[in-house]
């Protein structure tokens, strides 16, 4: 304990110098950005209803089997009136379709790369072996097809997929390459909650983007972007700027993904109304958690139930981040069903801390191009941690930097034990594959490692990941 306190003191001491220099670089970044020709105020928003990603067709009619086809390709979008923006997407111009499967299904996905550069496709939150995980080792070269196959062996959840190409994850995600991955099971079937896809069960992929004066996506990273991660001036939802939803005067289920490269959102409704979080990254919570705001870091997901029954017909409620509205719910439909908040959602078997055979520490350090975990940067030829297949471990993630970082590990779902020795908030009491770690904070998590292979752990600020704030762990018998 004394040794840890000494390291924390040293870390905080170092932060003083890092932050001092960082502030100078940050100020220059702000100055430089203000003189770029990008000025989103000159671009006229194309007002539209919220786009709903299509459900991807399952091409295998056999029971307990599913087969999908995904193509990564270039595209164009009209984010602003009369302006065509170059983009990338899966099976379309921007983002990708929703893949929906069931627990127990054997799944095959043929992923074809029609881009002019290599890419990968990572199943964020899915518990699979390393060969099918889609990390940087699973490179798909231009013109090639990758065919991962796996069995779904985890509960109902809202996951997602995105590229994980070494040093290019941030750029490729920013250009539009991301999509949602739904798992359903008997529990989700039995719950009396909204389930009509795109009507009262609505996905919200929230991302921020920066556009230049010609309306093109601007991913020229300055010093500020390298230090804090990329943050844009315009927030998109499902690929649309300031969209609106025609909402029923009743309950809606919103499946929220923070698909931004680095931004942390603090979400609230403009009328101040409360809502209930029912699921986190890896599936349903044991019971709904009443909230009036929701913080989600890059890569995190949350499902919420929001009841518009007390909103007058014809009124508009806006979803906001830090008080700034970026999408609207226009309540103009009578609800054909009446829902109530379930008292219980599911049962989560807590992992006994006494079962842990190993404890590991992972510390976020550095800033800008010097970011690291445990003092080292990512090396594809180096295995940083070796984990026994089937073992239960406690990982303690510390933050010795001056900013908040989201920690993510592939192929596994965690349970949070505590934050600085205190129990996690109720909405973090379920399964998590991504979690925020504030400056000076230590977060202890526990997990059982069920799949073999090489996996990544990293900061999910994509600019930090690309700069080397990432490591590898090998799971084997």
From TrEMBL:
Signal peptide stretch: none
Transmembrane helix found in the keyword field: yes
Key words of the record: Membrane, Metal-binding, Oxidoreductase, Transmembrane, Transmembrane helix
Domain annotation Plastocyanin-like: ranges: 83-186, 362-477
PROSITE patterns xrefs: MULTICOPPER_OXIDASE1, MULTICOPPER_OXIDASE2
InterPro entries reported for this sequence: Cu-oxidase-like_N, Cu-oxidase_C, Cu-oxidase_fam, Cu_oxidase_CS, Cu_oxidase_Cu_BS, Cupredoxin
Superkingdom to which the source organism belongs: Bacteria
Spans traversing the lipid bilayer: 7-28
UniProt family annotation: Belongs to the multicopper oxidase family.
Protein name, UniProt field: Multicopper oxidase domain-containing protein
Lineage: Bacteria, Bacillati, Bacillota, Bacilli, Bacillales
């Amino acid at each position: 304990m004394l040794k840890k306190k000494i390291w924390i003191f040293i870390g905080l001491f170092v932060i003083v110098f890092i932050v001092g220099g960082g502030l100078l670089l940050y100020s220059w970044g702000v100055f430089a950005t203000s003189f770029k020709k990008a000025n989103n105020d000159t671009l006229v928003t194309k007002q539209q209803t919220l786009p709903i990603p299509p459900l991807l067709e399952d091409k295998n009619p056999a029971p307990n089997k599913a087969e999908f086809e995904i193509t990564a390709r270039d595209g164009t979008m009209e984010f602003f009136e009369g302006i065509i923006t170059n983009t990338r997407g899966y099976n379309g111009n921007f983002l990708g379709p929703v893949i929906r499967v069931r627990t127990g299904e054997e799944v095959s996905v043929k992923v074809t790369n029609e881009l002019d550069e290599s890419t990968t496709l990572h199943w964020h939150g899915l518990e699979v072996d390393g060969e099918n995980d889609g990390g940087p080792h699973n490179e798909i070269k231009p013109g090639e097809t990758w065919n991962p196959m796996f069995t779904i062996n985890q509960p109902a959840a809202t996951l997602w997929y995105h590229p994980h190409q070494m040093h290019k994850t941030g750029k490729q995600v920013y250009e539009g390459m991301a999509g949602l991955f739904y798992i359903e099971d008997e529990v989700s079937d039995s719950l009396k909650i909204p389930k009509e896809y795109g009507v009262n069960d609505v996905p919200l992929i929230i991302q921020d983007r920066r556009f230049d004066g010609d309306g093109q996506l601007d991913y020229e990273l300055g010093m500020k972007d390298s230090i804090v991660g990329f943050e844009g001036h315009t927030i998109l939802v499902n690929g649309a700027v300031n969209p609106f939803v025609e909402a029923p005067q009743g309950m809606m289920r919103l499946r929220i993904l923070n698909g931004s490269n680095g931004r942390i959102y603090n979400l609230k409704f403009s009328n101040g109304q409360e809502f209930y979080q029912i699921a986190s990254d890896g599936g349903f919570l044991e019971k709904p958690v009443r909230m009036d705001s929701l913080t989600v870091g890059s890569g995190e997901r949350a499902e919420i139930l929001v009841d518009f029954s007390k909103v007058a017909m014809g009124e508009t409620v806006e979803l906001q981040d830090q008080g700034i509205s970026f999408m609207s719910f226009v309540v103009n439909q009578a609800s054909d069903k009446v829902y109530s908040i379930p008292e219980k959602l599911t049962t989560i078997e807590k992992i006994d801390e006494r079962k842990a055979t190993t404890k590991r520490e992972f510390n976020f350090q550095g800033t800008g191009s010097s970011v690291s975990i445990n003092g080292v940067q990512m090396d594809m030829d180096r295995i940083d941690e070796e984990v026994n297949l089937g073992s239960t471990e406690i990982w303690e993630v510390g933050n010795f930097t001056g900013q908040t970082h989201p920690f993510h590990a592939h192929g596994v779902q965690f349970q949070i034990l505590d934050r600085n020795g205190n129990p996690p908030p109720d909405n973090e009491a379920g399964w998590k594959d991504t979690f925020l770690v504030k400056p000076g904070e230590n977060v202890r998590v526990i997990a059982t490692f069920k799949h073999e292979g090489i996996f990544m752990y990293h900061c999910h600020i994509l600019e930090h990941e690309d700069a080397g704030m990432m490591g590898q762990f090998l799971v084997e018998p």
